[in-house]
Amino acid sequence: MAKCYKIAIVGAGPAGLGAAKMLLSKGHHVDIYEKENFGGGVMAFGIPAFRIKLEAVNKSVDPVKELGGNFIFGSDLKESDFLELAKKYDFVYLAFGLTKVRHLGIPGDDLNGSLNALEFLRDFNFDDKLNLKKSKPVLNGTCVVVGAGNVAMDGARCAVRSGANKTIIVYRRDRAEAPCTPAEMSQAEGDGVELRFLTNPVEILGKDHVEGIKCEVMTLGEPDASGRKSPVGTGEFVTIPCDYVISAIGQIPDNAVWNVGKIETDHGYIKAVKSYGEAFETSVSNIYTGGDIVKGAKTIGVALKCGMDFAKHVIALSEEE
User: Fold this and answer.
1) How far is C-alpha 66 from the geometric centre of its chain's CA atoms?
2) Residues 162 and 232 in one domain
3) Is the pTM for the entire model greater than 0.85?
4) pLDDT one-digit tens code per residue, 139-181
5) Looking at the predicted structure, is the pLDDT value of residue 92 above 90?
6) How do 6-10 and 29-34 pair as beta strands?
7) Which of 5, 139, 176, 304 is within CB 3.0–4.6 Å of 164 for a Cys-Cys bond?
8) Distance of CA 294 to the CA centre of its chain
């Protein structure tokens, strides 16, 4: 007879939910620790309803509840907490995502009106999708979004829905090099978003509030480490008058989580010691991980596979005993 394990999952996003559902279906006890007061992770608060409706998110959360998954909401845990959980549970699975946005790192990015894409999307979705606020962000005037990934496209489309009179995406490479899908780009254009390629911000202008953004016109050179053609400055500059700048140039881990230093990390990303498909054992033997916190920002499908591979590994171990 297979052994029944007690498992703690940290994070109720796609990886955590995928793992929980499979483990529960095999009779294991699963507690899910979640920072927010609801499940779904980025599917709930990071992706707008015009891309993933709340009903679709609930289809991932509700089966876990129905199978007996125990959600412990409002759990903002750090490494010291993970290590304590490892003493109480047979396995701990770290399935939280990337909660910070990379700063532009240019003069003026601390001005009022210079916004973080994840925080902006969170505020928008807490009202528009989750009905947890009474008003979504209001943007009057022109908004410039920096970046061309899916977060940038979502941010620009939400800026339009937040009242921006004009929304412009600036990206230092060209259309073909953009990380978002062609469909996401077309949808943004369909919402009236203007796309300006080969345009790299170098300074946000203004006194107390954003008044414009200075950009260098770029050209493309040889491929860089990512395989994409590298942007090269031309020495020519343009200024775009605007009232808001939203940074969407990449998600990164929250380094403040790692307050002990026992779980080995690299710039906030968890380092894998062993891998079982897309399940990764950490430097603490019964703590595993998967999803964005080890692989970098990927799709929901990739995160889901990470969670399911962890569950398969635990189920296989239980059947050996």
Assistant:
1) 27
2) yes
3) yes
4) 999 999 999 999 999 999 999 999 999 999 999 999 999 999 9
5) yes
6) parallel
7) 139
8) 12
d(C-alpha 133, C-alpha 256), whole Å: 27
Residue 153 sits at φ, ψ, to 5 deg, of -65, -45
220/301 same-domain check = no
SS3 (DSSP) at 51: coil
Query: Does 206 lie in the same domain as 156?
Result: yes
Closest CA to 269 of 54, 44, 98: 98
Tens of pLDDT, residue by residue over 93-137, are 999 989 888 889 999 999 999 999 999 999 999 999 999 877 889
Centre a 10 Å sphere on the Cβ of residue 84 and count the other Cβ atoms it contains: 13
- Domain encompassing residue 65: 6-99+253-320
**125 found inside a domain:** yes
Are 107 and 242 within one domain? yes
What DSSP element (H or E) covers 135? none
Q: Assess contact for 110 and 122: CB atoms under 8 A.
A: no
The pair of structure tokens assigned to 156 is: 């620009």
81 lies in a domain? yes
The CATH number linked to 124 is 3.50.50.60
Kindly state whether residue 1 falls inside one of the protein's structural domains. Answer: no
**What is the DSSP code (8-state) at residue 222?**
E
Extended strands (E) in the chain: 6-10, 29-34, 70-73, 91-94, 100-101, 114-116, 142-146, 166-170, 194-196, 199-206, 210-223, 229-241, 244-247, 251-252, 265-266, 269-270, 274-276, 279-281, 287-289
What percent of the chain is predicted at pLDDT more than 90? Answer: 87
Same domain, 95 and 111: no
- φ, ψ for residue 143, nearest 5 deg: -120, 130
Q: Which 8-state DSSP code applies to residue 4?
A: P
Cβ proximity of 253 and 268 under 8 Å: yes
Residue with tokens 């015009």: 50
Residue 287 located in a structural domain: yes
- Look at the chain and report how many structural domains it folds into: 2
Structure tokens at 148: 């061309």
